[in-house]
């Protein structure tokens, strides 16, 4: 009954075109990556406790106030990061829910869309725990990994929105290649987890005013960086093997193009990591590395989804919710191995 009332209210909104839905979905990906990037800015500027309480900035103030013990710029950076989470991420998460609900998209899309605002709330709570626990390294790492997971979900939603609601999946690349990309995704998750340990032991504690009070991972940084780098090599090797199969086997052009883009992004990210390590982890490269991590996550997710796209039934008329979505180049393709 409650959901029916929600649908009646949503039906008062203009019907979004397929292009509008895709644009909103793209903005959702960017917003999820943005919150991770601004979080890294908070860290490298040592503004993690610029607002030492949550959800308020201070116990007696929701917003930053003039204080001797906390510089105003630390307050502004941390408070700004929170505002991005509230106004940009939540707004766009709500927008994608309203758009796909109004367009009466298939249940799969609705589920992914609703995950965005729900997970954003969870992420906000996790951010609060990060502050209230005094920036413990493993909580900060979990916060970053949650952001990466949300980028993955948003990227999957972006691909699914561009596909028709009728019909079924058709292979657009060799099945073995798709399995390799799935394994590459698992390896990527390990790379990201290992990366948070390097950060947890690194020089950016997140609070310059009292760095000795911040819980740090007391393990050799070269050792952690070697593990991180080794896992990256495994990830890149699996992805490269998939790329070879995609190039040799019957694959649709969107998949061929996307695997090239993914490999380029991964190599660029690896280069940033190497330069970052040998230049003693400058803050600007940390921010670029976090942005690169989000890019790798999004590209890998998109690649995996494109390898088995949903294809419309031949001769089935386009409905208002998917008008403008074109069938994939592989719509007439036979199953491939």
From TrEMBL:
Q: Does the keyword ATP-binding apply?
A: no
**Pfam families (UniProt xref):** COX15-CtaA
The UniProt keyword set, sorted, is: Cell membrane, Disulfide bond, Heme biosynthesis, Iron, Membrane, Metal-binding, Oxidoreductase, Transmembrane, Transmembrane helix
InterPro entries the record matches = COX15/CtaA_fam, COX15/CtaA_HemeA_synthase
Question: In which domain of life is the source organism classified?
Answer: Bacteria
Principal localization reads membrane
* Bilayer topology term: Multi-pass membrane protein
Q: Does the keyword Oxidoreductase apply?
A: yes
Q: Where is this region: Disordered?
A: 318-337
Kindly list the places in or outside the cell where this protein is found, as annotated in its UniProt entry.
Answer: Membrane
Look up the record and name the pathway of this protein.
Answer: Porphyrin-containing compound metabolism
Q: Which residues cross the membrane?
A: 23-46, 84-102, 109-131, 137-159, 180-201, 221-247, 259-278, 284-304
Q: What is this protein called?
A: Heme A synthase
What is the species listed in this Swiss-Prot or TrEMBL entry? Tsukamurella soli
